[in-house]
Input
Amino acid sequence: MNVRPNMLTPSPITSTAVQDVLSHCKSLSHIKQLHAHILRTVSDHNLNTFLFNLSSSSSSISLNYSLSLFSSIPSPPEPFLFNLLLRNLSRSAEPRATILFYQRIRHAGGRLDRFSFTPILKAASKVSALFEGMELHGLALKTAALSDPFVKTAVLDMYACCGRIVEARKAFDEMPQRDVVTWNTMIERYCRCGLLDEAFKLFEEMKCSNVMPDEMILCNIVSACARTGDTRYNRAVYDFLKENDVRMDAHLLTALVTMYAGAGCMDIAREFHTKMSVRSLFVSTAMVSGFSKAGRLEDARDIFDQTGKKDLVCWTTMISAYAESDHPEEALRVFEEMCRYGTEPDEIAMGSVVSACANLGVLENAKWVHELTHRNGFESSLTVNNALINMYAKCGGLDAARDVFEKMPTRNVVSWSSMINAFSMHGEANDALTLFARMKQENVEPNDVTFVGVLYGCSHSGLVEEGKKIFASMSDEYNVTPKLEHYGCMVDLFGRANRLQEALEVIESMPMAPNVVIWGSLMSACRVHGELELGEFAARRILELEPDHDGALVLMSNIYAREHRWDDVRKVRRGMEEKNVFKEKGVSRIDLNGKSHEFLIGDKRHTESDEIYAKLKEVVSELKLAGCVPDGGSVLVDV
DNA sequence: TTAGGGTTAG
Output
């Protein structure tokens, strides 16, 4: 770089030349050379231009150099000289430097003008410097800069960012006039600290005050609506946008798509999604997630396939979509594809793969995925290990689940609950209770999920008294309010133990309305114990809630059949056929030497079907000899 | 020679 046209008599360079040369300065020594040249030409004007241009740069070298220049100026500088520097310091990675510089100006007896306040206040907001912010507020009041709406909005924002939302609102209320930016600042800050109702109230007030909301404000309102999870707001927003013909930019569309996708309104989400000219990965991932939650896997896959460069979150969304909707094989395929494309899984991605394997229910696959987690370095990951416990439990690998649990370096309440649930699922209620006691010894607070596991174990193993005690301890000892599923466990506990009256009492004493599952539990208990009258009562309650409930309809027709009310039987059966209601069939699956064998009721598809039925006959006759008589009551008409 | 507001996925 050569900024010296003549070594002996340097001539002054023009402002544009200063700007141009400065833009080519790559290091501190370049800047110093230029500075030296300007000093030798003794031009105040050029020095100011030099300062301006230094201050307008975003590089920290230039900003630091202009700071050092200011400290060498003997008399207090005029605001027009440093306002640009304040602005760029406040936007830099070190906003605190703005406040330090401001303090130096004050110390040197310099004054601020209305343009100086906003960047310093902004810096105070960024670093939560409430004390300095308040000082500036006072100073603005004294110098009448506060009459400037920009300064007032910055003061408001400073209070809100420093956690003083009440003071922010006070500043807002004191403003004689508010434009759309002021309204938005206040609304956005309310949203940020979770005061959504206040934000909505203010939005309504704003509309009454004849200020038209713009896309930024609507963006905030939409995101607030999404956060409430209250779908009534969604419709209101939609109508407002349609009625007012609002212009929509990418931010607003993003907020809209994520809100509607999150709420499961996928057709509206798609409407906005197609309006986007550039679709960010965020938005596409939100669409994939929304479609998969709405059970529309093919639509989810379409969006996923249309998405160009995918990141880990996007891949994971698709993997869990398949894992959670009974397509575990597809989940594993997508995972393998992701790895082929060179995306390394993290804990969450790995957890989704593990839960896909859990739903596959095949122990061989479970072992394979377990190895995979080790190969990827997740041996000590809490979430992955928790998922492994659940996976092994669902795949019949109780010992493997226990092994994972015992080897975990750290455990949380999820780990304990998962292991307790694993024991309960396998009918090992005593082990579940022992583990529950150990959990207590190790001072891990149980949560509602833990109690579902413990109570489930008790009900399946007939530990009625133990179950009663534990249920009572929930609120007495642990401050966990029983939910619907806990009452369900209690109904099941009494029902299985043929204490049907007590089961009914649980239902009657519940603080919430019993659902189909609760009545269903009572109904099956009645069927098993031949309590037809109470069973019919439960079945009727179910049919009130869900007229096509297969189990209740089958039970009703069986009851009528026992009583030889054949007309009623035919009526129920015909109704079921007309409405295409079929008893959902339970599937049994056995994995043998890496092969999975599936059986339905009356199923003859298996290649060794004849041998299997012959063996079954043998077993049943041995059972009869041992005094066990199969109950044909519930298959009277069903078969 | 300058100024105040935004969204978002597993």
